[in-house]
Amino acid sequence: MTSRRLGRQTVALLRPPSVVSYANIGGKFEANGPLAGHFDLLCTDSFFGKDTWEQAESAMQQEALTRALEKGGLTPAELDYVLAGDLLNQCIGTAFGLRDFQIPFFGLYGACSTMGESLALGSLLLSGGHARTAACMTSSHYCTAERQYRMPVPYGSQRTPTAQWTATAAGCCILGDQGDGPYITHVTCGKIVDMGITDVNNMGAAMAPAAYDTLSALFRETKTGPGDYDLIVTGDLGALGHAIVTDLFRRDGVDLSRNYQDCGMLLYDLEKQDMHAGGSGCGCSAAVLNGYLLDGLRRGRWRRLVFAPTGALLSPTSSFQGESVPGICHAVVFSAGKEGET
Amino acid sequence: MTSRRLGRQTVALLRPPSVVSYANIGGKFEANGPLAGHFDLLCTDSFFGKDTWEQAESAMQQEALTRALEKGGLTPAELDYVLAGDLLNQCIGTAFGLRDFQIPFFGLYGACSTMGESLALGSLLLSGGHARTAACMTSSHYCTAERQYRMPVPYGSQRTPTAQWTATAAGCCILGDQGDGPYITHVTCGKIVDMGITDVNNMGAAMAPAAYDTLSALFRETKTGPGDYDLIVTGDLGALGHAIVTDLFRRDGVDLSRNYQDCGMLLYDLEKQDMHAGGSGCGCSAAVLNGYLLDGLRRGRWRRLVFAPTGALLSPTSSFQGESVPGICHAVVFSAGKEGET
């Protein structure tokens, strides 16, 4: 037995994979934020020394993987799989970033849930006995996202109060079948949830129902509640989405108010940095996890943590065609100890 | 033990998952091709009754999954996972096509290798003991691909002789941990291979080195050669890419000439249908597999078959920025019997 299926969405891993190494990269705004001390590299040049922002995003993924390998004392040849994706059309941030590493590669598209999706699949592959090591990673870049999803940056478009700021960041987490933790003990795979939100400047509202759906499944299927975790972190819902998730659980009589945070609210000082509803982008939750959160787990600040990044599965084309915004949220449970079930 | 890692890229599945059901959908040109008798649905309306081609592509995925479920006597609630992706920006063909099914979903981006990637990950999840059923699927649409990658269809742009024709097609394969076969016995995960091809109208040449790389790894790591398989099928290399792969192996003293075909050459009558180098798009290999190839395996025409679809990991943006075209190829071995190792 490698795992125990607890319900429709949650699998308990009986041989929990361990975090072996991790690294994150950030840009100028991340350097000015409250988590600056938890980055491996902060680069104020938005081009990362390259000619285009897309190339810069690839360079960030390349650098995040290189640093994670170095910190873990590993070579690319020692990685059995890399699972990665990003927000760019056809995921070119990932394809060009990973091109030179010669590692067997599974490309993912989970929008801003990608860090959770890659950890979910990576830990399932490892605990299933198919691999000893897997790198899970993603990135986003403010300037590539703006020109692809919204307006060219030089236009200086005004933002709505519900808008979020795409992080210029990348994160990489290397999992192993051996290691000293933290361990991934549970994986809850998300379903697509679409409550009909059509405002593309309000991703928090669009994705919050997916976070609620996945966290509800996790709690229900593991027979746990918020009190069983030291910290529950969604990924880039921002202030508005965070409030909606809190409210949806309150209606169920579940109190999230004491230990629930969101990566989009952690990465920046929302008021001082004028970040409106908060951070977003695949790189937001990836950078917060592969620095601040894993640092805290390793140092004993938290023993048990739910990491649940959320993604909005839209494109500019789908929005122009009048579609609403489907969301998804993949959750993994990190634990300082190896207990597969509780 | 769930699997045995035979080398850097290949895993032999000791509990080979079985094909439980499959279905495919095609459009007008697929209906006029030589495989028309191997489709579940052929629709001559390029809009599939919807308002836009993107919605049509979603409808095709929806229909392919619905038919595969029906043929297998399954409900969506009986599927543990669906693994899918497509070529559209942010994979909206998949997101909107699967939105209503409420199945735990892992989104993939492997370009035209997606059918292979989904089968690879799906069979690893099943043989790892994490699930009992998984649907693996993808789609492409000529008109959505043309306007996204090339020119709006009404322009009637002239095509180069090396160009391929994006299939309007979708395919879905449902795998189970129980079943009467065919079985997936081996998975070879591809690496990104980029030989510097920059001609975006010559995808066959760009992807052929990836097919050569993955098939070489499969042969080397399983200690087999082309003669050990009844059929080896790459996915949408077309006539030119097929010739390049054959030639690359010939240089190694390996003769592929007797049992090697390509989905891009099977789907259409290249001469009569004026398809230039052949078919392409995620839906090409998906439709050929989930009809012609699986029909043949079930009917005993072939006992052992390598399915190795190829993807080009470019975007219009990467090409405009002068980048070359990285390729990837994921291979799975189908076998009429359950032999995990040979």
What oligomerization state is this entry in? homodimer
The CATH topology name of the largest domain in chain A reads: Peroxisomal Thiolase, Chain A, domain 1
| Low-pLDDT segments, ≥5 res of chain A | none
Would you list the SSEs of chain A in sequence order as H and E?
Answer: EEEHEHEHEHEHEEEHEHEHEHEHEE
Distance between the termini of chain A: 17 Å
Instruction: Output the CATH homologous superfamily of the largest domain in chain A.
Output: Stage V sporulation protein AD
User: From the coordinates shown, what is the CATH architecture of the largest domain in chain A?
Assistant: 3-Layer(aba) Sandwich
Instruction: Report the principal-axis shape of chain A.
Output: globular
Percentage beta strand of chain A: 15-25%
What is the number of independent domains of chain A? 2
Count the DSSP helices of chain A: 10
Helix content of chain A: 25-40%
Classify the secondary structure makeup of chain A into a structural class.
alpha/beta
Biggest chain-to-chain interface with counts:
A-B, 61 and 61 residues
Specify Rg of chain A, calculated over alpha carbons.
Answer: 18 Å
Please explain how this structure is put together.
- Two copies of one chain form a homodimer.
- The longest helix of chain A is centred in the middle third of the chain and has 20 residues, at 203-222.
- In chain A, a hairpin with a 4-residue loop joins strand 1 (3-5) and strand 2 (10-13).
- In chain A, strands 1, 2, 10, 11, 12, 14, 15 and 16 form an eight-stranded mixed beta sheet that branches. Chain A has a six-stranded mixed beta sheet with strand order 4-3-9-7-5-6, sandwiched between helices.
- Chain A has helices spanning 28-31, 53-71, 92-98, 114-127, 142-149, 203-222, 238-251, 263-266, 282-298, 316-320, and strands at residues 3-5, 10-13, 18-26, 41-42, 81-86, 105-107, 133-140, 165-166, 169-176, 183-188, 231-235, 260-262, 279-280, 304-312, 327-329, 331-335.
- In chain A, helix 2 crosses helix 3 (92-98) and helix 6 (203-222) packs across helix 7 (238-251).
- The model of chain A has no long low-confidence stretch (mean pLDDT 96).
- The first copy, chain A, has two domains: 3-176, 3-Layer(aba) Sandwich (Peroxisomal Thiolase, Chain A, domain 1); 183-335, Stage V sporulation protein AD (Peroxisomal Thiolase, Chain A, domain 1, 3-Layer(aba) Sandwich), CATH 3.40.47.40.
- Chain A is of the alpha/beta class and 342 residues long.
- Chain A is globular, with a radius of gyration of 18 Å.
- In chain A, 33% of the residues lie in helices and 23% in strands.
- Chain A is built from ten helices and 16 strands.
- The interface between A and B is large, with 61 and 61 residues.
